[in-house]
Design brief:
This protein is an alpha+beta fold and 177 residues long. It has helices at 3-18, 25-34, 40-55, 169-173, and strands at 62-63, 69-75, 84-93, 97-98, 102-104, 109-114, 120-123, 126-128, 131-133, 139-141, 144-146, 148-157. The strands form three sheets. It has a six-stranded antiparallel sheet. Helix 1 (3-18) packs antiparallel against helix 3. This is DUF4863 domain-containing protein.
C-alpha cells in the first residue's frame, strides 16, 4: 500500500473513534492524553504525513504564500471518512508567521508534527508543539507558526472551512510578536 493510502486508512480508524465527539478543549485534552507523541497512532500518522510532504511530495504541495506556507486536501469528506476531510498544511518560519484567516463552522482536529524541534502551532489553548489542537465549532483564526517548520494534518467535519470571513479589527492589528 502506498503512503497516501496508508495515511487515509490510519485516519479512517482514528475518525471512527472520534466521529461523534465535538472539537473543543475537552476533545483536545483527550487527544493529547490518549494519543500523545509516543502513541502508536500519533507516530504512524506523523511518519506517513512526513513522507507525503518531505519525501514524496503528494501532501501540502500547493503554495499559499510561497514554499513556506503550503497545503493540500488529501481526502474529501465521504462515507468512508465519516464525512471528515483530510488536509495537510506545511508552515515554516522561525519568527511568528500568520497564514490565511479562516473559520471552522464545525470545528477542526489538528495533528501537529514539528519538523524542527522548536516549531509550534498556535492553538486555542496556546502554542502547541508535538500533539493535537482542536478548535471548536464557530472558531476562527489566523494559523500561526513559530520556531521552524511543522506540518498540521487536519480533519474537518463535513470538510467545512471558510476563507470568506473577515477578521475582527483587533485580530488584524494585533501584534503577532
Amino acid at each position: 500500500m502506498n503512503s497516501r493510502l496508508a495515511l487515509i486508512e490510519h485516519s479512517i480508524s482514528f475518525l471512527d473513534e472520534v466521529k461523534n465527539r465535538t472539537a473543543g478543549e475537552e476533545l483536545e485534552s483527550w487527544l493529547n492524553h490518549t494519543y500523545p507523541a509516543g502513541s502508536e497512532l500519533y507516530a504512524e500518522l506523523a511518519r506517513l504525513i512526513k513522507i507525503g510532504v518531505l519525501e514524496e511530495g503528494w501532501a501540502a504541495n500547493v503554495e499559499v504564500d510561497g514554499p513556506r506556507y503550503r497545503r493540500s486536501r488529501i481526502a474529501d469528506p465521504s462515507e468512508d471518512t465519516f464525512y471528515f476531510s483530510i488536509t495537510a498544511v506545511y508552515m515554516d518560519s522561525v519568527d511568528r508567521y500568520r497564514g490565511q484567516y479562516h473559520a471552522h463552522p464545525y470545528g477542526e482536529l489538528n495533528l501537529v508534527v514539528p519538523i524542527d524541534p522548536g516549531a509550534r502551532l498556535m492553538g486555542p489553548r496556546g502554542w502547541q508543539g508535538t500533539g493535537w489542537t482542536a478548535p471548536g465549532p464557530g472558531s476562527h483564526h489566523y494559523p500561526e507558526v513559530r520556531g521552524g517548520a511543522l506540518i498540521a494534518l487536519f480533519y474537518l467535519p463535513a470538510g467545512r472551512i471558510s476563507y470568506d470571513i473577515t477578521p475582527d479589527p483587533a485580530e488584524v492589528s494585533g501584534d503577532p510578536a
